[in-house]
Amino acid sequence: MKNLDLGVFGNGISPIESCGWSPSHPQGGSSRTGHFPTSLVRICRSVTSVQTELRGCNSTTLGHIVKQTNRTSTMKKTKAVPCFAFLLAVFACLAATGRASRRARHIEFVNRSGKHVVVDWIDPTTGAAVTMYSDLMDGQVSSLDTFVNHTFAIHEMSNESSSAETSEVRYITVSENEEQVAFIKRGLSIQYEDSSTKAQTQAAEMTNDCQQAANTKLENGENPSEVVEELSRCLEEKTVELIKKKNDEIAFESQVRLAISNQLENHTCADVNKETTEPREVRSWTHDNTERDVLVVHDRPSSQIHVIKNFISPDECAAITEAAKPLLHRGTVADGKGGSKLSDHRKAMQAGVRVPWEEEANGDPIARVVRRLYDYTNDAVGYNLTIEGQEDLMSIQYFGVGRNSSEAFDQYRPHCDGECDGLPHKDGGRVATMVMYCDIEGLVGGATNFQNAGVFVKPELGAAAFFSYMDPVTKLTENGFTSHSGCPVVEGTKKIAVHWMRIGVDEANPWSSFNTLTVKKEEEGN
Questions:
Q1: Which residues have CB under 8 Å from 480's CB, separation 6+?
Q2: Cα separation, 441 vs 253, whole angstroms
Q3: Local structure of residue 289 (DSSP, 8 states)
Q4: Whole-number pLDDT of residue 166
Q5: Which of 382, 497, 502 is nearest to 440 (CA)?
Q6: Which phi and psi angles does 493 have, rounded to 5°?
Q7: Residue 20 pLDDT greater than 80, yes or no
Q8: Which of 93-102, 162-171, 319-328, 371-380 is least confident?
Q9: Which end of the chain has fewer CB atoms < 10 Å from its terminal CB, N or C?
Q10: CA separation for the pair 492, 440 (Å, rounded)
Q11: Rounded to whole angstroms, how far apart are CA atoms 266 and 349?
């Protein structure tokens, strides 16, 4: 996001909680920072003395102080000083302890010390130790769901001749990396591994043979230039071998994942009590003086899935629904030949709604919400999209027929909105989608299920589900994580406003100049 993450300021969370949170079990709730020495605790606690000033500071004011780029935000001079003082205090705390992260991580503790050990979580607010494993036996493996920057203390169990206060203590802090394992060795030495250290070890093993061969040749007086060329060839062969092995593993795991997700699709959608997937991270996005919570439920370079609270207003929904009324027709799907067709794969009513950009300056609600979704997309993934040549807004409406009806439920079976094959993006193709929930009266079912990503979004009035499917750096499309379904609507109504965004369109090359295979219509058959 380009905007400052101000989610911890002004949603009922105290300033001290924005730096280091109150004691709680590492396996639940929001994230925590790392170990707090006593002096830092005092710094953070001093922040609470200006907490009342926060009530006079909205996030727009704070954002302006740090030179954020909200389009229409303003700052009242009378509030700037206390806001700035508060912000400095918070930054002092965060700079010393590491910024509070809400990203979950998994860590394993493997005891190979020959002794019984204790694993304590260090409360970031007080520095106190909270015991997680009071007796981790030699040879035992235990794991915790925790968060980035959490710190754990490891020491031997106390006995009659020693105590936790006098025995040696080793500390480890949860990193940003995945696959974290702490091996507790003899003498209480800690061997720490994660995805990064494993990669470094593999790289060293891969290059060792090549380096030894090169050194031997140099010692034997061979031509240095030829040795360098041979070293380069050796490294290239080793790299190709490793990449092929990894690609084979990824392909196999992908096949297994897809098979499992397909089997679980109907089961997942049938659970009408299922809630939205717990977020990996909670952010805040400020636009036009309004702050919105953003739940990041999937976060990869080529695929993002976010749930944005209170994204679309009732009057914006009403304007879209009204504009769609005379245009509603049965929804279609791509036919695989560049056109569209009716299909049992999709059962819903839909209507394209033109965005009246010429009325944006007059406050048109449809133009207003579409402008907002482009601003969000550019902030979230940096596509730098423009409105010229983009698709119409789409109103899609599903209606329940009742649990006992013999009629087929309204739904949309799993599909990708754009390309999701891992190949380079086609110019003019879709790269992101915004699904806005406008009417969920009496709704049973109707969730948006990303079966391959393990992400489930339960419709919430006024919320939006955003997902992108192209890496903004490599321009490669994602590999199936944003494949999604509109689960069957059993009862009630589900009316959504959907907008698909593209890269490579403009006034001269609008979206309508491409067929459903993202081929220019004028080039078809060439």
A1: 254, 258, 416, 420, 421, 452
A2: 40
A3: T
A4: 54
A5: 497
A6: -125, 140
A7: no
A8: 93-102
A9: C
A10: 7
A11: 22
Q: What percentage of the chain exceeds 70 in pLDDT?
A: 79
Beta carbons within 10 angstroms of residue 103's beta carbon: 15
Whether 120 and 130 have beta carbons less than 8 Å apart is answered as yes
pLDDT at residue 406 above 50?
yes
User: If you search the block for the tokens 């780029």, which residue do you land on?
Assistant: 69
SS (H, E, C) 362-414: HCCHHHHHHHHHHHHHHHHHCCCCCCCCCCCEEEEEEECCCCCCCCCCEEEEE
Q: Which helix (H) or strand (E) holds 308?
A: strand 303-308
Q: Which candidate, 426, 350, 355, places its Cα nearest to that of 390?
A: 355
pLDDT (0 to 100) of residue 526: 57
Q: Tokens 């196999």 sit at which residue? A: 252
Tokens (6 digits) for 447: 């969730």
Q: Which residues pair with 520 in a beta bridge?
A: 514
Query: What pLDDT, on a 0 to 100 scale, did the predictor assign at position 419?
Result: 93
Residue range 1-26: average pLDDT?
37
pLDDT at 46 over 50: no
Distance CA 465, CA 311 (A): 9
* pLDDT, average across residues 399-410: 92
- Counting Cα atoms < 13 Å in the Cβ hemisphere of 173 gives 14
How much is the average pLDDT of 119-137?
Answer: 92
**What would the two tokens of residue 397 be?**
């409406």
Integer Cα distance of 170 and 296 in angstroms: 33
End-to-end CA gap in the chain: 42
The better pLDDT of the pair 66, 205 is held by: 205
Asked if 411 contacts 488 with a C-beta cutoff of 8 angstroms, the reply is yes
Q: What's the half-sphere exposure (Cβ side, CA atoms, 13 Å) at 525? A: 2
Residue with tokens 């056109």: 339
CA-CA distance, 465 to 447, in Å (whole number)? 11
Q: Which residue has the tokens 């309204």?
A: 410
Is pLDDT of 522 > 90?
no
Encoding tokens for residue 224?
Answer: 């240095």
- If phi over 0 gives left and psi between -120 and 50 gives alpha, with beta otherwise, what is residue 422? left
Structure tokens at 320: 């879209």
How far apart, in whole angstroms, are the C-alpha atoms of residue 299 and residue 521? 35
For 252-296, how does the pLDDT look when each residue is reduced to its tens digit (9 = 90+)?
A: 887 887 788 878 888 899 998 999 999 999 999 999 999 999 999
For residue 511, give the amino acid letter: W
